[in-house]
Amino acid sequence: MEIPEFTCLCPMTGQPDFAVLSLEYIPDRLCVELKALKLYVWSFREEGAFHEAVTNRILDDLVKAASPRYMKLTAKFNVRGGIHTSVVVEHRKRGWKESV
Fold first, then answer.
1. Annotated catalytic sites, by residue?
2. 24-34, pLDDT tens digit by residue?
């Protein structure tokens, strides 16, 4: 899934931060429902968050909600202060091994 309109606020300046989120996962018994994901992502629009912290929080919340076998979230933030930030976080269910 690609979420091209993620927005949160810089916790230091209050200015908006924009990112493209890419979510890859292998479900177990539950799937991520798209409308719920959209509403969840929108909830960050008025929240101050550091890039690394918000990316980890989103992954943690999605893992808690869906209990996937595997999940990877990539957040590519637009340039701020001359720096482009990409944050990649992963979750693997204990005992799950990727089949080739």
1. 10, 17
2. 999 999 999 99
